[in-house]
Amino acid sequence: MNVSDIKMRLLACCVYVAAVGMLAFPSSAAAQSGAATATQTPAVQESTPQLMERIRELERELAQLSAAAAPPVAQAAAQQQNPPAGGAQQAPMQMPMPPATTGPLNPENTPPDSTDPQALLDRIKLLEQRLRDLESSAVLSEPETRVRKVDVYVDPDGNQFDQPTQGAKKTTTYQRERVFRRQTINEKIEEALADAAEHNVTVGVDAGVVAQYAHRTKGEPTPADGHFYELVSADIFFTAGIAQHTLFFADIVGLSGPNPEGEMLVRTLVNGYSARLVNQNDISLREAWLRTELFGQRLAVTAGRLDLTNYFDHNIVANDETTQFLSDALVNNPALGLSENGVGLSLVYDAKNGFNFKAGFQQSNSSATSLSDSIFSLAEIGYLARPFGLSEGNYRAWYRVDNSGGSGYAIGYGASIDQKIRQGVTLFGRYGASDAEVKRDHFYSGGVQFDNGLGIFPSDVWGVAYGQNDFSVRPKERLVEGYYRFSLTERLNLSFHASYFLELLEGGGNLGYFVPGVRLQASF
Amino acid sequence: MFKAKRIVRISGLVMTVLGIGAVLVGALPAPVSLGQNIKVQDPTSVVMIVNRDSNDISFLDIKTKKIVGRTFLGNNVNPHMVMMSPDGRYVVTGGTRANKAYIIDSRTLELVKVIPTDIAPEHLAFSPDSRWYYQGNPDGDSVSVIDMQSLTKIKTIPGFAEPLNITFTADGSKAYVGNYGAHWVGVIDVRRHELLKKIQIADVPGVAKLDPDRYLGEIKGINIAAPSLDGRFLYAADSDLGVVGVIDTRTDKVVKVIRVGKDPWRIYMNHDGKYAITANNGDETISIIDLRKNEVVATLEAGPDMTGINFAGGKAFVISSSSGFVYVYNMSSLRPAGRIKLGTNIQLETATTDAADEKLYLAQSTTNEVVIIDAKTEAIERIGNVGVYPWGTHIMDSKDNYCH
User: Fold this and answer.
1) If 0-12 CB within 10 Å is exposed, 13-18 middle and 19+ buried, where does residue A114 land?
2) ipTM
3) Distance between CA atoms of A343 and A364, rounded to whole angstroms?
4) Which residues from A are below 8 Å from B327, CB to CB?
5) Measured distance CA(A325)–CA(A331) in Å, rounded
6) B236-293 pLDDT, tens per residue?
7) Distance from A21 to chain B by nearest Cα, in Å?
8) How far is A200 from chain B (nearest CA, A)?
9) Strands of B348-353's sheet in order across
10) pTM score, two decimals?
11) What 3-state DSSP class applies to A156?
């Protein structure tokens, strides 16, 4: 007998005793009447056996009513705890019942079945509420099923046991599981759509239109003076998850339009998009690779046709001609010396503790007849630091070897740093050096980016950078670029650029260009 | 004759008083347990696990790591969040698909009352004095007020927009409600149980003509207004706006707006009161906010689909639900400190931290497990068969009791 049961019995007993007491304790007026007193006294006197019988009867009725109103589980418990005492009577339904009591046997406080008008009203109210709930949330009520991985034990005869059994071997299998989970129709539809999307090839597009104007400010006349240029680029990506932690990716690119480098006498590309240009108006396969993650997803291995600059010489502020600086010298370190994509392999080890290590190689010359003649190898170490109490900063150093020049192995090395100095303000710097025909070329660049609400609109980004390309053989180059990017929508950006290129010519003269431009970029 | 009459009267009076007394005793909620059915002696000694698909609450003994009891709520109830009242007397949960609140005696683990609420009850909170149980009903846009003395719903406060988490002030005079379907925090006058005011966290930009869906499509607003350690300020992250609004609880005004990463799910407060972290699911980063300066001091890479952040052993543990990883960050250096792989093709839900800030109890739904993570050593221990699809955990007096 549990506590609630005791309480219920006590309640029934006391209600009855109280009723009898009220009868035995008449009002003062009635007490004056001898007849009244005479009628009550025998009732009390004869009460002992009858009272006990009546109490037992009430107890039985209450237990039956409570059990009838309780949910199935509680009902079973009630039956165990209160076995019917030899043909218990049904509750007289005509009799108005006491209000249902709350407890483990009736936690929902469901009104008992009764013909009592109030009880009926209570039931109607409850049913109305349930109807409202159903109408409001429109749920699917069928049990949810899903497949689970389970460990079972199979003996030599093929008998399967849930628990370890002598002679049975532990094995893993899969089994459907059914649960009582009620879902809305929306949830069901969303699940189906997500499942379908997971097994499909995802297609993405990154398109850019860059219009630029070149104005010569210094030096002898060149064709690029007062001319407009426009380069249109469209990348189409295909992504598919083909195995556990394994991804296939392909990028097809098409470019069209005159690029400024065709007329401007500059050492590095004015428009970073031009680096993708193989043939005008042709579609070319830019990347196609498989990527998988090994050793607890710490090591990412990518193999196929690669762009190694996607993995090395990263920089948060200056690494993407589609959204950041346009000038190629501010996109990648010129010391990398990687002019085209090719077949290769990349390994990235990231323990997510601030350090990361990268290594890779790539074919660097598509006209080479073997990989041995055109191997470009790179290694990099990266570290995330918070120096001097500043925000996070990324510090990277790399080293590369390239034999595609035909004169042995040319080396290059460099560093790429981006350091957030406060929220929304990030400095960056790059340095690189590479073997040249004579001595070494040296490259420096640095700048600042503002974002995180430090623009006209909250999502705007802007930045200014300076680059210095000291080639061992003249001309050397100095460049400055500033841009402001409006985030028109989450998928559409419009940015305005202004660049100045100064070429320090071999003869001592200078050649300067002011290049304003506008870029419209969409990715979806 | 007269004496007999007097005896009858007195005995009648005594019986009546006893009867009325008994009726009143019987009407009192939640029996005082008499010993034989007590399953949990110390309410702080158990981890409560809310199992969405087995429709029950299971109770894991922290010392023995055994399930000491389960309370079945009913088929298709699908409970969402479990919480113990501050006085340790009751355990409550909202049955999302049953539209009901369930009240469990925390010692006997018996279901003592089921109370109809509004539609889809999920997150909930208790007033500090344990008197009021506020149940948020996101689909009903309301908060149900349940009196824990009479165990009855006394009011349904309307006027919210997908109310998720509720935060009471330390003195219990006000409650703040995060509205995920809007960009404001609702303030409830707890004395009258009425929505007192709405605090807009930040200006919502006008809808761009080029992108009408940006703010008119799905809305992801405010999950919770989380209190600072001293209770003076509340921090409310707005997902769509990518900001955290700082509310002064004395004036109920926004005193600062901090821009964080993209699509912050919500903010989590470090236990020492120095830092708070937002889990930015839009760009898979976390933003660490210095609470003295109210500035972001670090934005660090994290994982996809973050559902919770716990603090223990001087570290932050960020749960990336779909990747099977818990990302770890050193809260002294504010740098990443590795990640713990809990499995492949699993779904992590949320965790609670023990009161000593030593261990995390993380619900792993698809394997029906709770994973115990030692904050210091990062060793893990799995407790299986806790129930079907454990959705969340809760420990009384833990500083990391939350849901998703």
Assistant:
1) buried
2) 0.82
3) 8
4) 352
5) 7
6) 999 999 999 999 999 999 999 999 999 999 999 999 999 999 999 999 999 999 999 9
7) 4
8) 18
9) B348-353, B359-364, B369-374, B380-383
10) 0.81
11) coil
